[in-house]
User: Fold this.
Amino acid sequence: MIHTGRHFLQIPGPTNVPDRVLREIAQATIDHRGPEFADLGIEVLDRLRGVFKTRGPVVIFPSSGTGAAESALVNTLSPGDRILILETGWFSHIAWRQVAERLGLIAEYVPGTWRRGASPETIEQRLKDDSARELKAVVVVHNETSTGVVSRIADVRRAMNRSGHPALLIVDAISSLASIDLRHDEWEIDVTVCGSQKGLMVPPGLGFNAVSEKALAASAAASLPRAYWDWQEMLKSNKSGFFPYTPATNLLYGLREALRMLDEEGFENVLARHTRHGSATRACVRAWGLDIVPEDPAEYSNSLTAVYTPEGHNADKLRQIILEKFDMSLGTGLGKLAGRVFRIGHLGAFNDLTLAGTLSGVEMGLTLAGIPHRSGGVAAALESLTATAQPLPSEDAPLVR
Ligand code: PLP
Assistant:
């Protein structure tokens, strides 16, 4: 089948890369030890601090998100250290538990249903019980990309503080940064881990660690073997805008442009936009009469929605029909949700009409796949988008440019 127009990449990352970012990436590669590079490095490192809401350093690796997760662990921990990981879904397992165990850490994996975020109460109790202070870190996935469930990091931090326990707080913000409110400094996160391919609107290939002073101090004593991932070498070079090895120069061009775009839109507007699109998507799914994975409205994700197909209807079959007929990619169900859910990504470079097109494709696909649902989902989303659209400036108000 020949498709015309643009492919709809509506998986929850990698996300659609704006043309402005693609054009920047297409520039000639420059000398990464020359003066022009330093300007690029300094601007990118500086702007990133604003996105992570930190005054401390943000480290950039040419890596995927899993690499950045490994870096967070090897820089702060020692062989045999015990850490607490909250089971929220596929990524708490694959990116954290599995990596931690392969590194020789003891991962205490607190079971979860995949329908709820990390429980601050459970964390508080476990830390209070740990009078020997054996737990060295708590790991929470902020936005569990396999389920569309958000963990309440500010509440986790308050719970940790109430326990009086010194464990580090490591947060996976891979699918929340620049889509869902995250405050590295205010929430006293020790390492925030991210990747370039989601809310940051850059192709895959960059991993990030925002690092607190406490995490830096921990790194001085941590003895897990590390070479490439070592923060110290990186921070030394970053001071003058350079990297200790060859950086991903062209991706950094793209990142600089994406960060400028977020700044132009206004960071709070970016988050508000994701909130509107999350609400409109859920209004649509509700109108179809289908269920979403998260149970608690306080934990609904604004970057993706994971939708159950009814018993006896394979979600991957639906995804296949939508891909073939409408040239749209939706996220597959991961781990125990394989075949049971499809995931709609509504993050990154995204607008009202992209959402309208996305939901229209799903609605047509549901019909073609013979999946029982009520009509009116797209209409409900449009109603929600219209009701929350920015008001037009009134006729006598001066136009602000
Ligand atoms: N953690 C979360 C929450 C993710 O969404 C992902 C990827 O989608 C990862 C970890 C792993 O990141 P990567 O695939 O870039 O290594």
In short: The first strand starts at residue 8 and ends at 10.
